[in-house]
Design a protein that fits this description.
Low-confidence stretches: 219-267, 272-298
Order of helices and strands: HHEEHHEHHEEHEEHEEEEE
Oligomer: single chain
Number of strands: 12
Structural class: alpha+beta
Number of domains: 2
Strand content: 15-25%
Distance between the termini: 81 Å
CATH architecture of the largest domain: 2-Layer Sandwich
Number of helices: 8
CATH superfamily of the largest domain: GAF domain
Helix content: 25-40%
Strand order of the largest sheet: 2-1-5-4-3
Mean pLDDT: 75
Radius of gyration: 30 Å
Length: 298
């Protein structure tokens, strides 16, 4: 049964579901297999230099045999056909590597035959000197070579796999960078707060949380109401040394300094600590960074 518009729409949706969790691409590959009358499908980032470092998702294919493929057959005829074909092309590998020649290879005997695979449709998505990205569907001898109508469907969904993978990679990179920044900030002896333009504290490292928990005079306030209000600008904490206020920016009608940037001392009520406050704000009312450093007795 050929896929209708609804099933194709569901398939594309399944592809983008994998952005948040790439493991979900397995189900998308199963749907693609069913839609193209194939026994299985594969989405792979093939590392040509270190094949065992390749990343891939399989739909109804044998994971153990995939490891054997990467270890011993990464330069198989089908792989070479995919590498030589320009990205954006969708084709039946049977036109490049005829089945009568394929069955003579060790690759067929060890990897394909145990899975009852004889035919393949391939969509190379990207390549460079070190890697190749591709989407493939695999067929049994009984079903036969991948036909033009199935190749059209493969051509339709292949760009969605590529785009979804790009988004997932970027989100993953951002998550790693964010985790690294968080770990670095939490490792500092200095306290650090990240405050959004709306007045909300977006992040506080461990040192900052410990300082604020002392309730010893460290404050962050906004003119014109509670944090998150629509009106007003950030103003200096009440424990700011007023002699340093002009260095931070202009004063408002209430006599407080609008914090445009700078470093000033602010003594805690207990006198046990001295806080150096660093305020930096970007143009256009964007994020404002606020750091507090604990020091010796004043």
């Amino acid at each position: 049964m050929r896929p209708d518009e609804t099933s194709i729409h569901d398939l594309v949706g399944a592809i983008y579901d994998g952005v948040a969790d790439p493991a979900l691409w397995q189900q998308a590959l199963v749907q693609l297999s069913d839609a193209t009358r194939s026994m299985g499908a594969m989405f792979i980032f093939m590392d040509r230099v270190h094949p065992m470092q390749s990343r891939y998702v399989l739909g109804r294919l044998d994971h153990d045999l995939m490891q054997v493929f990467l270890t011993h057959h990464a330069d198989a005829p089908w792989t070479q056909a995919g590498i030589r074909t320009p990205p954006g092309t969708t084709f039946s590998i049977d036109t490049v590597v005829p089945a009568r020649e394929l069955i003579k290879t060790q690759f067929y005997g060890e990897i394909l035959r145990p899975q009852q695979i004889l035919h393949c449709g391939c969509a190379p998505l990207a390549r460079d000197g070190e890697r190749v990205v591709g989407l493939s569907v695999f067929r049994t001898p009984k079903i036969g070579p991948v036909e033009s109508e199935d190749l059209r469907l493969l051509s339709l969904v292949a760009p969605h796999f590529k785009r979804a993978a790009q988004i997932a990679w970027r989100l993953g990179t951002l998550a790693v960078v964010d985790a690294a920044k968080t770990a670095a900030l939490d490792g500092l002896d200095h306290g650090g707060l990240l405050i959004g333009a709306g007045g909300h504290v977006l992040f506080a490292n461990r040192a900052a949380e410990a300082i604020i928990a002392l309730r010893d005079g460290l404050t962050v306030a906004r003119e014109g109401g509670a944090p998150g209000g629509a009106a007003g600008r950030y103003r200096a904490p009440p424990n700011l040394d007023r002699r340093d206020a002009p260095r931070l920016g202009r004063r408002n009608d209430a006599g407080d300094a609008s914090l445009a940037g700078g470093t000033v001392p602010a003594a805690c009520r207990s006198g046990a600590r001295k806080l150096a406050q660093i305020h930096r704000s970007k143009a256009g009312g964007r994020d404002l960074h606020y750091c507090a450093r604990s020091g010796g007795r004043t």
